TrEMBL record, chain A:
GO BP term, pick one: microtubule polymerization
Name assigned to this protein: Tubulin polyglutamylase complex subunit 1
MF terms (GO), sorted A to Z: microtubule binding; tubulin-glutamic acid ligase activity
Domain called Tubulin polyglutamylase complex subunit 1-like C-terminal: residue spans: 106-300
Cited Pfam families: TPGS1_C (PF24480)
Entry's Gene Ontology cellular component terms: centrosome; synapse
InterPro entries in UniProt: DD_TPGS1 (IPR047502), TPGS1 (IPR039235), TPGS1_C (IPR057632)
Organism from which the protein derives: Ictidomys tridecemlineatus (Thirteen-lined ground squirrel)
UniProtKB/TrEMBL annotation, chain B:
GO biological process: cilium disassembly; microtubule polymerization; regulation of protein complex stability
Cellular localisation: Cytoplasm, Cytoskeleton, Microtubule organizing center, Centrosome, Centriolar satellite
Residue numbers spanned by region Disordered: 287-329
Species: Urocitellus parryii (Arctic ground squirrel)
Chief location of this protein within or outside the cell: cytoplasm
Main function: Regulator of the tubulin polyglutamylase complex (TPGC) that controls cytoskeletal organization, nuclear shape, and cilium disassembly by balancing microtubule and actin assembly. Regulates the assembly and stability of the TPGC and thereby modulates polyglutamylation of the microtubule, which antagonizes MAP4 binding.
Listed GO CC annotations: centriolar satellite; microtubule
The protein's name in its UniProt record: Centriolar satellite-associated tubulin polyglutamylase complex regulator 1
Biased composition (Acidic residues): 316-329
């Protein structure tokens, strides 16, 4: 069994406390130990009552809904993380002892919001939107010394954390953060928050794809690509993105797709490679930065 | 990363396919049996530990058989646990009987049925001389096939019997050109002349079976590979071929390749570390035992002595029918 060397959390179950102020029924059960006498119907009823009283029924229902919403590839691992997160936050918020400091509380809030945001990939839009709402509520909940609402500082901090965990180089995502950040003391409305989160996750995916693209271009052994080839790919990408310039016409997607199709890309690569002049190499960072810039140019700044 | 078909399934099918409800139900049962624990540690922590152990495959240890065989993941976990717990048996080169392997299995699963161990032993011993000694790896790989594909093999046995007695489980069967050379359906009395059934015919039946089988079965392409190498084969011949097939072992994913079976440096180190702490176990052999990377640790002073019983002497003389793996790799 996985033995966790974690210090024993407070004896009172936080979850129980939240739901039922009276812990008495649960406690009396545990006193009985395991009654081998009553394995009959009474026991079954008692078990159901017990599960309901200590909140297991509700907890599992919520977990199952989350699983169905996110449809993870590995639902069991998903559940392990789900309950781990729940366990981490309950002793702190409901347990005895002195209240955690303001800074710690803030970190916990951020962690919880991040966890909700990552439950579902942004392509599962309904699930993602739900999770964004929950994250927003996590962050904007009022506290002892905190007024309800989400301020710009927390929002920026969250964006930074997402980008940092997304393993995208800082200089690549920095322009985006500059564009969608809010001022520290500004209140962040729900719409802005949602758009910001979505943009950030989409950019991270975009950068990951660009990274994969660069791996195809780079010369084996050397960690660089030919500048002419790299530039040709970037130009093609730019052309494709430019084609659908803020028009909501579906045809622009088709056009962009065709510009990125193998034919047109091959042509561009061919043209680039025929120029015989020796060129300087292009590094991965440079390629990613330029590719991300194309994306970020399309993002409307906040405010 | 995202497998789209998962998202298109109806909720219930998605849950069933990944056995989510099986584990949730079991988690609740475990929770009810351990009420004392949850009042101490909290429900969330209980569930965290439960689902983490399911991921790690340690959840099947000492559980009842019905649970151990409930899902493919449980079966694979049990196989891995059996291998990791008792691979030292193989390392010491001990040969054990079917009953002894059964005792080992029961250490991990108290109500493990004898029948299944017997079936596995039949694969190794080709259905005779059931009190013979077997090497660990032979038994393990045979047991893997028998345990993991249990339901599939039951159906295969039925098909085989039908074919043998001249009944044809599939109505649409075109005799191949090969079968013309032999007499097509050997009557039971002629078993001495033509043993087993014809491989291509057998494969056609199995292919059908794989298509409609709701339990796990080995990848059909690999079954085909096994059967395409021979013209005729017996039921146990087929099982032996399955159990020795690398690809099937890999597809199943519970055990390493046969060559790496005894190789687990991290575990060895851990074992050594623990053994040093046990007074009286490691005595004069300590300097030897500490030079670990040798594949066959010194027999003297081995803590696994208790398994290594007086039959050992026999084993070395009449164990010649077995493959002893140490010499192979």
């Amino acid at each position: 069994m996985a033995a966790l060397p974690v210090p024993v959390p407070s004896v009172k179950m936080a979850a129980v406390e939240k739901r039922r102020p009276a812990v008495a029924p649960a406690a009396s059960f545990t006193d009985n130990g395991r009654p081998s006498v009553s394995r009959a119907q009474a026991a079954a009823e008692n078990e159901e009552d017990f599960l309901r009283q200590v909140g297991v029924t509700e907890m599992l229902r919520a977990a199952l809904l989350k699983v169905l919403e996110a449809r993870p590839e590995e639902p069991i691992a998903f559940l392990a993380h789900y309950f781990e997160n729940m366990g981490l936050r309950s002793p702190a918020s409901g347990g005895a002892g002195e209240p955690p400091g303001q800074l710690l509380l803030q970190q916990q809030r951020l962690g919880r919001a991040l966890w909700h945001l990552r439950l579902a990939h942004h392509s599962q839009r309904t699930a993602f939107n739900n999770n964004v709402s929950v994250a927003y509520e996590c962050l904007s909940a009022g506290g002892r010394r905190k007024r309800p609402g989400l301020d710009g500082r927390t929002y920026s901090e969250l964006l930074k954390r997402i980008c940092r965990d997304g393993e995208a180089p800082e200089e690549v995502v920095a322009p985006l953060l500059r564009k969608i950040q809010c001022r520290d003391h500004e209140a962040v409305p729900r719409g802005v928050f949602r758009a910001g989160m979505l943009t950030c996750f989409v950019l991270l995916d975009f950068v990951a794809r660009a990274g994969a693209l660069f791996r195809l271009l780079e010369a084996p052994g050397l960690a660089v690509a030919d500048r002419r080839v790299g530039q040709a790919v970037l130009d093609t990408l730019e052309g494709a993105l430019g084609a659908g310039d803020h028009t909501a016409v579906p045809a622009c997607y088709l056009e962009a797709g065709s510009r990125l199709g193998p034919d047109s890309l091959a042509l561009a690569l061919d043209r680039a490679a025929t120029g015989r002049r020796p060129s300087s190499p292009m590094s991965r960072e440079e390629f990613l930065e330029k590719a991300a810039a194309l994306f970020i140019a399309k993002v409307k700044p906040v405010g | 990363m995202l497998s789209p078909e998962r998202l298109a399934l109806p909720d219930y099918e998605y849950l069933a396919q990944r056995h989510v409800l099986t584990y949730m139900e079991d988690a609740v049962c475990q929770l009810l049996e351990n009420r004392e624990d949850i009042s101490q540690y909290g429900i969330a922590r209980f569930f965290t530990e439960y689902f983490t152990s399911v991921c790690q495959g340690t959840h099947i240890l000492f559980r009842e058989f019905s649970f151990i065989q409930a899902t493919p993941h449980n079966r694979a976990s049990f196989l891995r646990a059996f291998w990791r717990c008792f691979r030292t048996v193989g390392k010491n080169g001990d040969l054990l009987t079917m009953k002894e392997y059964h005792c080992l299995l029961q250490l991990l699963c108290p109500d493990f049925p004898l029948e299944l161990t017997q079936k596995a032993a039949r694969i190794v011993l080709m259905d005779d001389a059931m009190d013979c000694l077997m090497s660990f790896s032979d038994f393990l790989f045979a047991f893997q096939i028998q345990f993991y594909y249990s339901e599939f093999l039951d159906s295969v046995a039925a098909i085989y019997q039908d074919l043998l007695s001249g009944k044809n489980p599939n109505t649409v069967i075109v005799p191949t050109s090969f079968s013309g050379q032999h007499r097509q359906r050997p009557a039971l009395g002629e078993a001495g002349m033509l043993e087993g059934v014809e491989a291509s015919l057998f494969y056609q039946c199995l292919e059908n079976l794989c298509d409609r089988h709701k339990y796990s079965c080995p990848p059909p392409a690999l079954v085909k590979e096994v059967l395409s190498n021979v013209q005729r084969l017996t039921f146990y011949g087929f099982l032996v071929a399955l159990s020795k097939h690398h690809g099937i072992n890999q597809a199943l994913g519970a055990l390493p390749d046969k060559g790496d079976l005894m190789h687990d440096p991290a575990m060895d180190e851990e074992l050594e570390r623990l053994l040093v702490q046990v007074p009286g176990l490691v005595n004069s052999a300590t300097p030897e035992a500490s030079c670990l990377p040798s594949r066959i640790p010194p027999r003297v002073g081995s803590p696994w002595r208790p398994l290594h019983h007086s039959r050992k002497v026999d084993a070395e003389s009449d164990g010649s029918t077995e493959e002893t793996d140490e010499s192979e790799t």
